[in-house]
Fold this sequence. Notes:
Radius of gyration: 20 Å
Largest sheet: 5 strands, parallel
Order of helices and strands: HHEHHEHEHHEHE
CATH class: Alpha Beta
Amino acid sequence: MVSALRALAIAAVLAVFAVASPLEAATLNIVAIGASNTSGWGVGAQNAYPARLQALLREKGINATVTNAGVPGDVTAGMRGRLHAAVPKGTDIVILQPGANDLRFLGTKQARAANIAAMVAQLHARGIRVIVYDPNNIPADFYQWDGIHFNAVAHAKIAATLAAQIAAPAKAQPPSEPSARAPAPGKP
């Protein structure tokens, strides 16, 4: 009887160590997919909105890992083509920042919109929440000297906008929405 109890106690201790800790289970996995602005062109990856977002969420007590899947020069067709590889199993949220390269590189608004819709549909089919960061009006002071790439202040504001959306109660953001468009920072 004593050896059976001892074996049961050892099994219980081993089971506790085999199960993931609550902190590991509570990690929010986020992937930011986009082009050069997502990657942090001109400000560095450490100052890009994905890194800033991760820091802000952790400051709010949310154990989040934000992966930067920005590829300079990419267009929405390229993002769509690499979506499966860039967004691994276990991802909870994808921030899609399609940028303007499609139009800059002679693509059409219709093809861009179709690629964004297809990516959102693919991600929703996988049970992943999607935030499309594609504001219509971006303030002029958000850009670096080239008028294309976000400056460090803009990245910080974008991260704050996204952190507020992510940290908001789940009830306010139904997962059945086709996409949640983030407003330009400072805009309602």
